[in-house]
Amino acid sequence: MKGQNKLFIAIIVALILGVGIGGLVHVKYPESAEPFSKNIKLLGTVFIRLVQMIIAPLVFTTLVVGIAKMSDIKMIGRVGTKAMLWFISASLISLFIGLVLVNWLEPGHVTKLPIQDAASAEELLKSSKGFSMEDFVKHVIPKSIFEAFATNEVLQIVVFSIMFGVALANMGEEYAQPIIKLFDIVAHAILKMVGYIMWFAPFGVLGAIAAVVATNGFEIFKVYAIYLRDFFFALAILWLVLLLVGYLILGNRLFELLRRIKEPLLIAFSTTSSEAVFPKLVEELERFGCNNRVVSFILPLGYSFNLDGSMMYMTFASIFIAQIYGIEMSVGQQITMLLVLMLTSKGIAGVPRASLVIIVATCSMFGIPPEGIALILPIDHFCDMGRSMTNVLGNALATSAVSKWEGQLENHGGDL
Predict the structure, then answer these.
(1) How does pLDDT run across 255-295, given as a tens digit for each residue?
(2) 148-166: per-residue pLDDT in tens?
(3) What is the pLDDT of residue 121?
(4) Inter-axis angle of helices 331-344 and 154-169, to 10 degrees?
(5) 257 forms bridges with which residues in the sheet?
(6) Residue 128: exposed, middle, or buried by beta-carbon count in 10 A (0-12, 13-18, 19+)?
């Protein structure tokens, strides 16, 4: 938690320094703005490349472990099926709300930034005109998993990971367990690397912000205020939808649930990590009356497959970056992006800023400059507070709803 706060402070300091340096160049040395921007932006490029370096192994290991562990569904039967139906529905609704609101509110249209990499724009135009079913199949199904890893083709890695995970789940515990354990350790090691890489984020922020301010002046700061306002408005809509569904299933007991989980919600908000509240959430859900077996199965699964706040943020942030760079995406491309995010986000644990890795991968896939992520990084901490809290609410509702459907939600409350 202390480390998180230090990183937050470091990013804020880098943001202020970046603004100061960029503003100085923009006002005093306008003729040097372009070469200055080109050079200092390399800091941002280093950060983006560090993030891109871990995308393929992170998606592969977390997804294989998540799918392989789903062999528990055979034991729990109906509970697992109902849980997955909830997760898929909630994820699609979250992504869809983010997509609709970012298109309606258009927070990225306040200002336009030039696309530094012209080749990526040409590629996007080419692919949008010449898109065919054959291209789609080739893009989805890998010819070689090593080629998919080398080129960071996330969707192809997802297809292979799902098939590999299902195969492991059906091999029996004796054979599958050592491999699952190995991948689990690798996944945790890579998530540890995410923590290390995030410490380079202040330099990436300094480079990106200084370059943007030097070229565009102070107009860019209108974007931050509007982005935060629109994102929290979108989160409020998602909360309304989740609470409405919760009320339809739980009735007046929804208010008791909210009273019980208020502390986990607060911890998630302040630490920006939904995983930090996991033990407390298990305890409170059991006190609420949820069956212990249902809680122990659904909650861990939900932390990989049911991150409603993060899901909504992914569509919101990806389309926002496209808007900032003036890239127009067709309805078809946006729906494809929604489905891609639906797949690629599964298995990514609810650690702080893990969703940024997926956003970078998705932006690259759709020809949106991935360096745009560095522009929203200074305020990502505030967004992370909201989405972590939403993740906790979504998982608490999922567990309570499935317990109710199974007729295993006790009315007593208060006993473990």
Answers:
(1) 999 988 888 888 778 666 676 677 788 888 888 988 777 77
(2) 888 877 778 878 888 888 8
(3) 36
(4) 40
(5) none
(6) middle
CB contact at 8 A, 334 and 53? no
The vertex-226 CA angle with 195 and 112, nearest 5°, equals 90
C-alpha to C-alpha distance for 298 and 395, rounded to whole angstroms: 8
Three-state SS sequence of the chain: CHHHHHHHHHHHHHHHHHHHHHHHHHHHCHHHHHHHHHHHHHHHHHHHHHHHHHHHHHHHHHHHHHHHHHHHHHHHCHHHHHHHHHHHHHHHHHHHHHHHHHHHHCHHHHCCCCCCCHHHHHHHHHHHHCCCHHHHHHHHCCCCHHHHHHCCCHHHHHHHHHHHHHHHHCCCHHHHHHHHHHHHHHHHHHHHHHHHHHCCHHHHHHHHHHHHHHHHHHHHHHHHHHHHHHHHHHHHHHHHHHHHHHHHHHCCHHHHHHHHCHHHHHHHHHHCCCHHHHHHHHHHHHHHCECHHHHHHHHHHHHHHCCHHHHHHHHHHHHHHHHHCCCCCCHHHHHHHHHHHHHHCCCCCCCCCHHHHHHHHHHHHCCCCHHHHHHHHHHHHHHHHHHHHHHHHHHHHHHHHHHHHCCCECCCCCCC
Overall size of the chain counted in residues: 416
Question: In this structure, which amino acid lies at residue 113?
Answer: L
Which tokens go with 240? 């309304």
pTM score: 0.68
CA distance 11 to 188: 25
